[in-house]
Write a sequence for this structure.
């Protein structure tokens, strides 16, 4: 998954310290794959996955829309060339003054999951379109889900009726099947819920127009994942099943699926040691860890492919840890990670599939270490 | 725990957005308490807990030494007025070129826990003093410990002999009983281990001079914690028990205990909602969460006191979550957190005991949110 362009960049530039290199050609390929696999859905790139200006500019040029989590992300999308009409303020948790700022910037599509949020939007962005997020069960997702976003479908009906009463345009329903979702049929039950919300509201004379099917599209880490095409087929089949010949507008919000496999982190082995002479496992300490960009190793949720220059050699299971003085800064310990016995202090390693959810997650200065550098090529 | 000076600052300045305010008077009091409770130990402030220049300058002026995790932290301590002789490079995981940079800056005290690290130091900082960290069991600590740092005592003997053979000054032993350690007798068994290492090395003609007793001193969150004096009494008793009338030089490395209770985070309630009409608990969303500085709520390890303007009112258990679109950004959900029923959207809350391990842990730009601002007064 490390492209030749990334290899060439690293060989030529030899950047010091850990860094992420993102190959824009891969991002373009991913965008094309989504557009081809789901031609009837609007693509809203989840900016939070990787807000690098070069990535946003490329996607804006390709015709992508943008799912933004904050006013800062809205401003970045506008700066990259997107019009406000192509931006969704997809965070269900917004300060009223941030809603007002987004409204002033021309944004007119907002996520909600509560009556309280509807009230804010009715005051700060009168007349805007809102979609209500419903809770899904998230089974099969590799990054932990919670009940943080969304409400139960029956409450979503009430929220959208309330929005209508307050003069907003009750526009649709959203859900998220869970990040790094490897089951292509995970959208089916959520679409069934969405349809029920459509029907309930239609009975009250409110005609929703859009289903935001969220993100969740995976990137390849150690295991193969289904293609965009397989997701597209399964999702469109589910749409036909539940909506028949009245399929609404649909939105998808790929983040990880758009940029995850486009990025590779170059890191360095700082130390390899044991805790006792008869320790079973070697500890391999890298110059990047949980606080330097690899936050998604929390609970060992995401297991990144790690390549070394010794990959043909005999392997042995290792603990992998980061460089900080924090004892929680351990990447893989419950499930040891096989690395070559010949791996040495000072060697470089490539951590693949790191284009999403790394740079911005990085701690600003923990232990005095700089945040993760990024090169977009 | 919110001092009048902090209240006055917030009332006068009305800073927008979440921010940490640190009262230097409290830091000074904490330093004095440690110096009074452990007069025979050198205080090495753990810079990583809060590296704000004002904090470092105050402590340098008071005569503190500094435990640094990186070259950047060493440079900050020097900048604050410490001499290189007052600095310990306490991270057991160091790039050889960073050891060389520290050596060039005049630092001559280094932590090790492996033969490999000893080799680096012998090459990059010839003749330096080294202390070897031994593993402790960490029982009773509230922040999760791991086996990340240190080696078993028998291996520490070998490491220090090796350091001696390579021309380094085998100077002492270190250990860390675990962060937020609330048992005052936790140092006893580690000091017994340290003594055994001293004895083993003395038999080989190597005379260690120092025990680095690490940090672990707690700050008050919701529960009371023992005073510095109680720790001092218990630790000096253990030193007498194990070292008799040959008590070595000792070092302590308070971080959390030095600055934790000096800081308060001002945050805002962004949303209060439920997930269904008959949901048991309200969800209270703040404008700060796990990625904005409250990383130590990971696994709900640290439970911060949260003050509101309605604290006399009836309370009910709530889920508390942060403002990002990340489902893992939930602070307290397994153990619900009691908050006043009268708490409303837009209200300010004060999160106490947040002077340590907050600002630098903050994500650099996750979801477009700025890192946590800090005001040192």
């Amino acid at each position: 998954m490390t492209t030749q362009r990334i290899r060439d960049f690293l060989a030529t530039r030899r950047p010091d310290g850990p860094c992420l290199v993102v190959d824009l050609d891969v991002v373009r390929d991913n965008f094309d794959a989504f557009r081809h696999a789901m031609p009837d859905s609007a693509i809203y790139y989840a900016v939070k996955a990787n807000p690098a200006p070069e990535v946003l500019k490329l996607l804006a040029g390709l015709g992508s829309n943008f799912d933004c989590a904050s006013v800062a992300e809205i401003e970045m999308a506008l700066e990259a060339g997107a019009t406000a009409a192509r931006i969704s303020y997809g965070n269900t948790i917004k300060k009223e003054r941030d809603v007002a700022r987004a409204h002033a910037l021309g944004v007119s599509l907002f996520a909600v999951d509560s009556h309280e949020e509807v009230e804010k939007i009715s005051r700060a962005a009168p007349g805007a379109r809102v979609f209500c997020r419903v809770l899904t069960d998230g089974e099969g997702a590799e990054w932990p889900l919670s009940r943080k976003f969304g409400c139960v479908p029956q409450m979503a009906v009430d929220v959208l009726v309330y929005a209508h009463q307050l003069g907003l345009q009750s526009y649709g329903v959203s859900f998220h099947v869970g990040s790094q979702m490897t089951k292509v049929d995970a959208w089916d039950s959520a679409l069934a819920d969405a349809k029920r919300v459509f029907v309930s509201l239609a009975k009250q004379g409110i005609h929703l127009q859009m289903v935001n099917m969220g993100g969740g599209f995976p990137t390849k880490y150690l295991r193969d994942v289904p293609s965009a095409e397989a997701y597209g087929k399964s999702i469109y089949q589910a749409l036909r099943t539940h909506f028949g010949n009245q399929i609404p507008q649909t939105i998808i919000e790929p983040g990880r699926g758009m940029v995850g496999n486009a990025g590779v982190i170059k890191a360095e082995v700082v130390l390899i040691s044991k805790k006792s002479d008869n320790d079973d496992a070697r500890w391999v300490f890298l110059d990047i860890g949980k606080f330097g960009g690899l936050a998604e190793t929390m609970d060992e949720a995401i297991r990144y492919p790690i390549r070394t220059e010794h990959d043909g050699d005999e392997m042995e299971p290792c603990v992998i840890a980061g460089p900080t003085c924090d004892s929680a800064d351990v990447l893989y310990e419950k499930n040891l990670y096989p690395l070559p016995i010949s791996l040495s202090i000072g060697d470089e390693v490539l951590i693949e599939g790191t284009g999403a959810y790394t740079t911005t997650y990085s701690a600003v200065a923990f232990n005095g270490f700089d945040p993760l550098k990024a090169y977009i090529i």
